Amino acid sequence: MSLSSRWSRGAELLGCEHAILGGAMSWVSERHLVAALSDAGAFGVIAASSMPPELLEKEIIETKKLTQKPFGVNLILMHPQLAELVAVCARLKVSHVVLAGGIPSAATVKSLKDYGAKVLCFAPSAIIARKLVRLGTDALIIEGAEAGGHIGPVSTSVLAQEILPQMRDVPVFVAGGIGRGEVIAAYLDMGAAGVQLGTRFVCASESIAHENFKQAFIRAASRDAQISVQADPDFPVIPVRALANRASDDFTRFQHEVIGKFRRGEMEKKEAQLAIEHFWAGALRLAVIDGDVDRGSVMAGQSVGLVERVQPVKEIIAELIAQAEAYYAGRSAA
Ligand SMILES: Cc1cc2nc3c(=O)[nH]c(=O)nc-3n(C[C@H](O)[C@H](O)[C@H](O)COP(=O)(O)O)c2cc1C
Question: DSSP 3-state assignment of 270?
Answer without folding.
Answer: helix
